[in-house]
Amino acid sequence: APNYEFYKNADVRPPFTYATLIRQAIMDSKDMQLTLNEIYSWFTRTFAYFRRNAATWKNAVRHNLSLHKCFVRVENVKGAVWTVDEMEYQKRRSQKITGSPTLVKNLPSSLGY
Amino acid sequence: LMPGICSIPVTSLPSLEWPLPSRTDQYELRIEVQPKPHHRAHYETEGSRGAVKAQTGGHPVVQLHGYRGKEPLGLQIFIGTADERILKPHAFYQVHRITGKTVTTTSYEKIIHSTKVLEIPLEPKNNMKAIIDCAGILKLRNADIELRKGETDIGRKNTRVRLVFRVHIPQPGGQHMSLQVASHPIECSQRSAHELPMVEKQDMDSCSVLGGQQMILTGQNFSADSKVIFTEKTHDGQQIWELEATVDKDKSQPSMLFIEVPPYRDPSICHPAKVNFYVINGKRKRSQPQHFTYTPLPAPSIKTEPV
DNA sequence: TAATATGAAACAAATTTTCCT
DNA sequence: TTAGGAAAATTTGTTTCATAT
């Protein structure tokens, strides 16, 4: 798992896409599923940067959850939780890597997407 | 004042999230009259919505059996969770002490780790029986609670509670024997109380893997589009089975569902299988999971000769 | 250029909180 | 005070448009 320690207290935008971060939040959870609210909490807990401008990044999180097919909403007793369709997630990423040789060279391996 | 109450230091007692038995060989703490399954809680911005009542119109009653002492004891009351997890104080609700001339019980309240606890006397002269007419329910704002450091529960759709009763009985050695009992679940949201299906009673707890038997569910808010879904989860929470039971819509009423238990996914099991089922109205309005057990067929017949 | 990412925003539905009689 | 109802407010999800990489 990536080490986000630096960003916990440094008010610097983490160099990862929303999709990468959302997936990470869900992967970090015990049951591989989180409510929207719990995803928000993970963001604020893990990144100083997301402790301000909440309206903006929360909107973006919801936007990404809806937009990407890899995030699947599952009904539950307690409302709904979000899960990751890992197959779908990796499909998108591998398309990007195999489909663009120039990007492969420049993509730092530690960065998502 | 109230002798015997409030005299025990909090630090020597088990914490509120600690599981306790409701009975021992000698004692039993029992809810003689259960509260109603619905009680709309009030917010801090509202006036009180009164004490929790019983189905009968009276109030819940709790009694301690087996106590031979002469001294009155204190009965503690707090609001607990009502989900599948083990009971703990409900972060989004608090007991609210009702006072007034309609209330017969004197009560005393204190806060233990951000949970309000009511204490009322249990007196030998009343047979150690207490009428709970002084306990209302206060709703705290989700956002306020969720930002508390260390709180991981979510308030949204988390609106069911149980009344939890505790008593600490002094023992010869200076120790205490603590007992606890929790009420049936109480739905505290106006909307959920009106719309969510709730199963209060099921006519049977188990049947053979073949299913096919009729089961009668008693409860609230059942409707024409109510479905009953049987599910099974593995130990780590992965759902591995789901099947809809057929509902007899002709017989069913708003407070009663007649269903046919569906067959279990594997008729050849050797040990009983514990599954869940729930009632769901429309897309989102679903009841808490209920428990059901499928039992294996009598004996796997090895004989092949005809009878 | 085509594909992706990010932001802002309009809308709808579900759920919670406040207000009124 | 206590009950009921429901308006007002907030959350959660979906979509669309514009801009930057």
From TrEMBL, chain B:
It is found in: Cytoplasm; Nucleus. GO terms for cellular component: cytoplasm; nucleus; transcription regulator complex. Transmembrane segments: none annotated. GO terms for biological process: anatomical structure morphogenesis; calcineurin-NFAT signaling cascade; epithelium development; nervous system development. Keywords: Cytoplasm, DNA-binding, Nucleus, Phosphoprotein, Repeat, Transcription, Transcription regulation. Residues 11-193 form the RHD domain. It comes from the Eukaryota. It comes from Astyanax mexicanus (Blind cave fish). The lineage of its organism: Eukaryota, Metazoa, Chordata, Craniata, Vertebrata. The keyword Phosphoprotein applies. The chain holds residues 310 to 616 of 871 of the full protein. This is Nuclear factor of activated T cells 2. GO terms for molecular function: DNA-binding transcription factor activity, RNA polymerase II-specific; RNA polymerase II cis-regulatory region sequence-specific DNA binding.
